[in-house]
């Protein structure tokens, strides 16, 4: 045998014999693989889209969380003294009641002057923190600012107008910390 024939036989022996029918089946078998690859690609694209949406939602949630925390911190800073002021208001009321006493001698007058100075200092310190007294008498009744404890019929005042104030109300910046207790005209 010639060398070429030997080489051809070796090649034929190494390669399995395939008939034409198997080759056609292999060709048709590749088409489902392409469909499968397309399906896998679309499935991966759907997962990618879902992951991107989840990422965007999480980022938006985090941004909202950060804004909410910043707003809460600003509110804490703005109203940090509210608890102390609320505790001081009864003392301020007592100061004002004490200052309404009629002084009959020099010693009492001197004591009242000292109390007025302390009262003024206390009012100024509260103003620096943003505390304001709520105007009541002569104002139209506002349920957010006033607490009606009595009603009256007085021709000198219009309807739904505050006639008398029993206890002063106070605001801290834009928040009512104690409404005024008032008598309202019907």
Automatic annotation (TrEMBL):
HAMAP family tied to this protein: GrpE
Cellular component GO terms, alphabetical: cytoplasm
Localization annotation: Cytoplasm
Membrane-spanning segments: none
CDD domains per the UniProt record, alphabetical: GrpE
Main location (coarse class): cytoplasm
Pfam families (alphabetical): GrpE
Region feature (Disordered): 1-43
Encoding gene (name): grpE
Quaternary structure, from the entry: Homodimer.
Keyword Cytoplasm: yes
SUPFAM superfamilies from the UniProt entry: Coiled-coil domain of nucleotide exchange factor GrpE, Head domain of nucleotide exchange factor GrpE
Regions of compositional bias (Basic and acidic residues) in chain numbering: 1-20
PROSITE patterns per the UniProt record, alphabetical: GRPE
GO molecular function: adenyl-nucleotide exchange factor activity; protein homodimerization activity; protein-folding chaperone binding; unfolded protein binding
Biased composition (Acidic residues): 21-42
Cytoplasm keyword on record: yes
Name of the protein: Protein GrpE
UniProt record similarity statement: Belongs to the GrpE family.
Function comment: Participates actively in the response to hyperosmotic and heat shock by preventing the aggregation of stress-denatured proteins, in association with DnaK and GrpE. It is the nucleotide exchange factor for DnaK and may function as a thermosensor. Unfolded proteins bind initially to DnaJ; upon interaction with the DnaJ-bound protein, DnaK hydrolyzes its bound ATP, resulting in the formation of a stable complex. GrpE releases ADP from DnaK; ATP binding to DnaK triggers the release of the substrate protein, thus completing the reaction cycle.
A biological process term (GO) from this entry: protein folding
Entry keywords, A to Z: Chaperone, Cytoplasm, Stress response
Protein source organism: Rossellomorea marisflavi
């Amino acid at each position: 045998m010639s060398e070429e024939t030997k080489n051809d036989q070796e090649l034929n022996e190494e390669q399995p014999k395939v008939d034409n029918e198997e080759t056609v089946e292999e060709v048709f078998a590749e088409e489902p693989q392409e469909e499968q690859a397309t399906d896998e690609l679309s499935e991966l694209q759907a997962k990618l889209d879902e992951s991107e949406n989840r990422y965007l939602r999480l980022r938006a949630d985090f941004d909202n969380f950060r804004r909410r925390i910043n707003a809460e911190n600003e509110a804490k800073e703005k109203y940090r003294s509210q608890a102390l002021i609320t505790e001081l208001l009864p003392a301020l009321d007592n100061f004002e009641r004490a200052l309404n006493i009629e002084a009959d001698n020099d010693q009492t007058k001197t004591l009242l002057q000292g109390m007025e100075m302390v009262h003024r200092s206390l009012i100024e310190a509260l103003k620096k923190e943003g505390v304001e007294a709520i105007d009541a008498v002569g104002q139209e009744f506002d349920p957010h600012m006033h607490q009606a404890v009595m009603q009256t019929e007085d021709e000198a005042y219009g309807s739904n107008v505050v006639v008398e104030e029993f206890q002063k109300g106070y605001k801290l910046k834009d928040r009512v910390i104690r409404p005024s207790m008032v008598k309202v005209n019907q």
